[in-house]
Amino acid sequence: MTEGGLITAVQKSSPAARAGILPGERLLAGNGRQLRDLIDYHIAVDPARRLRMTLAGPEGRRTVLLTKGEDEAVGLSFATAVFDGIRRCRNRCVFCFVDQLPKGLRPSLYIKDEDYRLSFLQGNYVTLTPLAEEDRDRIVRERLSPLYVSVHATDPEIRGRLLGRRGPAPILPLLTDLVRAGIRFHAQAVICPGWNDGPVLARTIADLAALWPGVTSLAVVPVGLTGHRRGLAPLRPFTREEATALLAEVAEWQKRLVAQIGTRFVFAADEFYLLAEEPIPSAASYEDYPQLENGVGLIRSFTDDFRVAWRYWRKKMPPGRLRVVTGFAAAGMWKHLASLMAPRGVVLEVVPVENRLFGPGITVAGLLSAEDIIAALRGKEPLPTFVPRVAVRRGEDLFLDGMRVAEFREKTQAEVIEPDARIFLRRAARVLGYGAT
Hints:
By secondary structure, the protein is of the alpha/beta class. Helix content is 32%, strand content 17%. The protein has helices spanning 15-18, 38-45, 116-122, 133-141, 156-162, 172-180, 199-209, 240-261, 270-276, 298-313, 328-341, 370-377, 405-412, 421-431; strands spanning 5-10, 26-30, 33-34, 50-57, 60-67, 76-78, 147-150, 185-191, 215-222, 266-268, 320-326, 346-352, 385-388, 415-417. Strands 1, 2, 3, 4, 5 and 6 form a six-stranded antiparallel sheet that branches. A four-stranded parallel sheet has the order 7-8-9-10. The N and C termini lie far apart (57 Å).
């Protein structure tokens, strides 16, 4: 087991820099507390003004003393959020996306994590199956909340089959105990037609809503199926009619739960509305967007933000031509936004990219490879082109297929940009000549 956190950067003029801490060293302890992860690190350093830090480097161990202001950051960045190794998933979920990956992608994609610490720190969904007693105690003791839990079904037998386990996989007793201890959760259910929809989904919604506000929200997400499922469980995608029926069921539950507990509680992923060819609900329907990172309300949120930002930029935006690359799922949204820009003389070409890496059933921009984007742009006339950063791993500069952003930019002249409406419009104005002297 690796000891301590590998320091990748030391902020200039920070307390850590003043104390002589160097990139490449490992931070082992802070004020006597052994550090297993960023949680331990923040507990040790955030409230302290004087710190005794134990480090290990090429020349062995050493101890440094540093002082900092009450609200001043130490100034260290680490290679990973967990220092003692990621807890690996031992489930064999019938819909596991990792099992559907082709060969040759960046190595980190093949890691199946089941680490409650990454759930707390980064919002990763975990099944909590199994959860060691010491980990349960730590969650309660250190108030690691909210956590993000993959429930899929509250029926123990069906959940066990979905997780690929030999027997039942109950989740309600654990959630109930942790909720009583003050821990809160956001839940998700990946829905596989014929497995956990219909009455099974109804039971799941009812069981989890009974734990509100401890279980704060539930996202209902359609199963994602790639073209690499040979030898795996026989699953199929939703039909339009099935997606329509599921949305009607979710709407009925929302109406009922608003009356009972004052919140809609359960929210359907954007993909269901696109598949059913139904309008995306209003912003109010998503309440405070509790499941935005799970693809629930992303289209509504981005569209509304774009409209607000466009009020500012529409009189400033120079006329010209631009291009945006996206997946087929968001192509309709971008074409609608392009229609808003057209009266100002801005022609926004929308290029939906076919996902050849995973197969045509995968339509979101976040799962596009660099090579597929390059293929879609090949032969097109040069235009300022924007690619959403969701296609690049968070905190890194690698696409799914391992191509670095710099290499991609050299091949395409395209700009990778944050999926933020204000950033997009500001950058679009700049490349079209706004502010040029």
